[in-house]
Amino acid sequence: MLRERLRQKALFIREVRNFFSSREFVEVETPSLCPALIPEAAIEVFRTELFSGSGASQELFLAPSPELWMKRLLAAGSGDIFQIARSYRNADTGSPVHNPEFRLLEWYSVGASYMNCIATTEELFSHLAERGAVRSADKALSPPFKRMSMEEAFRTYADIDLASCVLPSDLVREGERRGLLMPSDPTWEEAFHVIFLSLVEPVLPRDKPLVLLDYPALIPTTARHGKGTLFAERWELYVKGIEIANCYTEETDPAEIRSFLLSEQSRKRDSRVRHPVDQGFAELFEKGFPPCAGVALGLDRLEMVLSGETSLEGVILFPFFGILKDIIQHRVKGNT
């Protein structure tokens, strides 16, 4: 049973690699240990320390994604690249779809937009199914994916016109109208997420994979803003109600990138772990960063839903919270 499970997992990873290699993406490897990171207020990171023989030490951080290094490669002329990276995010809950150490499939396609990446993701799903890389025969997971804009989702499931909610107070009023307990003096993003997580996300369609398109540009990201709209060129993929992937048409304007870094660095002050900002990141865009689109896809979650599992414990060989449970049990036995 275990041997078959290991073979199935190996086939899954091999076919992910085969898919991108056959499309002339180059696989890359980048560091997990970083002296500085891109500030992202919503992500808590792991901190560690490097000791030298002289007694000096260097503070380091585990990369929450390979984005920082992959964008350096893109700026240097790498062309289309992909990576299956070990990534680390702190303060994640012990829910069935969270593990603090996880596999992140990240790819960048030069000259592409976020809309092009929908087709690539659909083709990836089809490829994995055709090659027998997943155990589930659930036809509901096969392409084409459903598509819905965030504006449509809010209108349909929360009866809220997002385009008219340009101030945090607008969203607070709409949330309270729907009976939600809204935070006092929230940012626009905070108010948005209360409504989205309470009223919209729980009722998104589950019969087919759903691409939720065009997130509000008032949520700070490095996604390019749609011209003449209040929305950014970004989508997230939901499968059976679980968020699997995040995609941007990448912003290339140096001024926009610097503005993002400053705003995120300011918001990061509330984080438990503070980290230096990679000052060279913004410089990449001043030298002419290539137009491209990128996708970050949780590979463990993808394997979970495509295999018909309901928890990451069904696909991760050593889930972290299982490790902690074993340690605690052994300590208890040792003290009795």
Summarize the structure in short.
The chain is built from 10 helices and 11 strands. The protein has helices at residues 2-22, 67-75, 114-130, 150-157, 168-177, 188-200, 254-267, 280-286, 299-306, 320-334; strands at 26-27, 33-34, 47-51, 57-62, 81-88, 101-110, 146-149, 210-213, 234-239, 242-249, 292-298.
Q: Mind sketching the topology for me?
A:
Blueprint lengths: L1 H21 L3 E2 L5 E2 L12 E5 L5 E6 L4 H9 L5 E8 L12 E10 L3 H17 L15 E4 H8 L10 H10 L10 H13 L9 E4 L20 E6 L2 E8 L4 H14 L12 H7 L5 E7 H8 L13 H15 L2
Parallel strand pairs: 1-5, 7-8
Antiparallel strand pairs: 2-4, 3-4, 5-6, 6-11, 8-9, 9-10, 10-11
Helix pairs in contact: 5-6, 7-8
Keywords:
336 residues, alpha+beta, BirA Bifunctional Protein, domain 2, three-stranded antiparallel sheet, 11 strands, globular
Question: Between the first and last Cα atoms, what is the distance in angstroms?
Answer: 34 Å
Strand percentage lies at 15-25%
Counting DSSP E segments of at least 2 residues, the number of strands comes to: 11
Overall average residue pLDDT: 92
Question: If strands are numbered along the chain, what order do they take across the biggest sheet?
Answer: 1-5-6-11-10-9-8-7
Helix content: 25-40%
Taking pLDDT < 50 over at least 5 consecutive residues as the criterion, the unreliable ranges are none
**Secondary-structure content class:** alpha+beta
The tally of structural domains comes to 2
Number of separate helices: 10
Any idea what the CATH superfamily of the largest domain is called?
Answer: Bira Bifunctional Protein, Domain 2
CATH fold name of the largest domain: BirA Bifunctional Protein, domain 2
General shape: globular
Q: How would a crystallographer describe the biggest sheet?
A: 8 strands, mixed
Give helix and strand order, one letter per element, not per position.
HEEEEHEEHEHHHEEEHHEHH
CATH classification, class level of the largest domain: Alpha Beta
Rounded radius of gyration (Å): 21 Å
CATH architecture of the largest domain: 2-Layer Sandwich
